[in-house]
TrEMBL record:
Record-stated family: Belongs to the group II decarboxylase family.
Molecular function via GO: aromatic-L-amino-acid decarboxylase activity; pyridoxal phosphate binding
GO biological process, one term: carboxylic acid metabolic process
One Pfam short name: Pyridoxal_deC
Needed cofactors: pyridoxal 5'-phosphate
Domain of life: Bacteria
GO cellular component: cytoplasm
Positions carrying N6-(pyridoxal phosphate)lysine: K296
Keywords noted in UniProt: Decarboxylase, Lyase, Pyridoxal phosphate
Protein name per Swiss-Prot or TrEMBL: Amino acid decarboxylase
SUPFAM superfamilies per record: PLP-dependent transferases (SSF53383)
Family annotation (InterPro entries): Aromatic_deC, PyrdxlP-dep_de-COase, PyrdxlP-dep_Trfase, PyrdxlP-dep_Trfase_major
Length: 457
């Protein structure tokens, strides 16, 4: 059916009105931060079966549906949203989603969205510059960090085994990574044909950071096992703890031994924009590849993640494909040769509009503020009896315990109340509560209230 522009305009007005109210009340901390109604009950409340079966939604019916839909979700703009590493998205990125939803220019092929592709080119040029790769690097935006890690490791595999794409994966390749690495790295190893057993653990300190002094021994273990390293992965920062590996030390080791150095900077690479935290990524320019999620600390909506390589040709070597209806003539402006995706959303527009509104400095100030808030939680908690913190936070992620009891029970109590959204993580085999300060509305009052609620005050 052809668009009814008048109906779209009315429905769009409803959307803006409802979302504005939703964000406003969320930022003020008025409703519960999280709702977890059982799926069957929620489906009935939303009227899903009826709408699917009968259709006939109007802007008025949509308004009622949207009100319930938003009320039954998780409010990432809420000051008590301290759970997962997902952005409290800024409104320019939301505008980009709106534009893409209507225009739908899947710009992996340049002719399918010249403006969207050009915006992505410039965003990637900016990211490459921030990473220290300059004019020689290459990049692409993908739908999420897991896909970005897979893409980077495809480039590493192409460098280690150039014929793997056509002949299959050699049985002697290994991936070196700490146990603190994101699960997507092990998943990528399996998808790439290496198998999980090819992921060989690196020695770490008690907090999961790579022990640079023990890297020679780790490399020797790999070689004694009859394997050769395809890549070595470091965290910037670790998903669980928010702590950064020593990138300069690891990078120097990899360069000296001819090992591909990959940095998972999905969460922590945005510290490159903060003058006070750039030091945490010292040595990032030594990495052969890195990833950087915009849908975390650059405040875009999900998903938008960059794959960056120090040498542009390495990324171009990751894929080999044939399709007569797509690959013909000059492909110089197409990004499809660098991604798993054939149809790719206008991801660069989200990053660009946030930059255009807030500026590089504004985004850097946001990173610094959220890192400072996590540090403030550490400061406040240390002064209270019963709270223990295994480390001083380096990012906006901090882990801690209260008492000697079951930390999962504390988390469930907070979630059931809708009072706070926390996650948890194991450190040294011990379960800890885990707070990730993402929402700009989170302040000292929120943090004090969190500690009070945990202690049962």
């Amino acid at each position: 059916m052809i668009w009814n522009v008048e109906e779209f305009t009315r429905a769009a007005g409803v959307t803006v009105e409802r979302l504005a109210a939703y964000v406003e009340e969320s930022q003020r901390g008025l409703p519960p931060v999280v709702a977890r109604r059982p799926p069957r009950e929620l489906a009935e409340r939303l009227g899903l079966a009826r709408w699917i079966r009968e259709g006939g939604m109007t802007p008025e019916g949509y308004a009622g549906f949207l009100a319930v839909y938003l009320a039954e979700g998780t409010r990432l703009h809420h000051p008590a949203s301290l759970g997962h590493q997902v952005a409290s998205p800024d409104f320019p990125a939301a505008l980009a989603d709106f534009v893409h939803g209507a225009a739908n220019n899947p710009m992996a092929i340049y002719e399918m969205g010249a403006s969207a592709a050009t915006v992505e080119f410039e965003v990637l040029r900016w990211m490459l510059d921030k990473a220290g790769y300059g004019e020689t690097g290459g990049g692409v935006l993908t739908h999420g960090g897991s896909l970005a890690n897979l893409t980077a490791l495809l480039a590493a595999r192409a460098a280690a085994a150039p014929r793997a794409w056509t002949d299959g994966v050699p049985a002697d390749l290994a991936l070196l990574a700490p146990e603190s690495a994101h699960y997507s790295l092990t998943r990528a190893a399996a998808i790439l044909g290496l198998g999980e057993r090819a992921v060989m653990p690196l020695d770490t300190d008690p907090l999961g950071r790579i022990d640079v002094a023990r890297l020679p021994a780790a490399l020797e273990r790999v070689r004694r096992a009859g394997r050769r390293p395809m890549a070595l992965v470091a965290n910037a920062c670790s998903t669980g703890t928010g702590l950064y590996d020593d990138l300069r030390g690891i990078g120097a080791f990899c360069a000296a031994h001819g090992v591909w150095f990959h940095v998972d900077g999905a969460h922590g690479a945005s510290a490159l924009l903060s003058a006070g935290h750039r030091r945490l990524l010292d040595g990032i320019e030594l990495a052969d590849s890195m990833i950087w999620d915009a849908h975390k600390m650059l405040r875009t909506s999900s998903l938008a993640a960059a794959v960056l390589t120090r040498r542009e040709g390495d990324l171009d070597a990751a894929f080999r494909q044939r399709a007569s209806y797509l690959f013909y003539g000059d492909q110089g402006f197409d990004l499809i040769g660098r991604t798993v995706e054939c149809s790719k959303a206008e991801l660069g527009l989200k990053v660009f509009l946030n930059l255009a509104w807030r500026g590089e400095r504004g985004l850097g100030d946001y990173v610094a503020r959220q890192y400072a808030a996590a540090h403030r939680l550490w400061e406040l908690g240390r002064e209270r009896p019963g709270f223990t913190f295994p480390y001083e936070p380096e990012s906006n992620i901090v882990c801690f315990r209260y008492g000697a009891g079951d930390q999962a029970e504390i988390r469930e109590r907070l979630m059931d109340e809708g009072a706070f959204h926390l996650t948890s993580a194991e450190i040294g085999g011990v379960r800890h509560l885990r707070a990730t300060v993402m929402a700009p509305a989170t302040d000292d009052k929120t943090l004090e209230a969190l500690l009070d609620r945990i202690a049962g005050a």
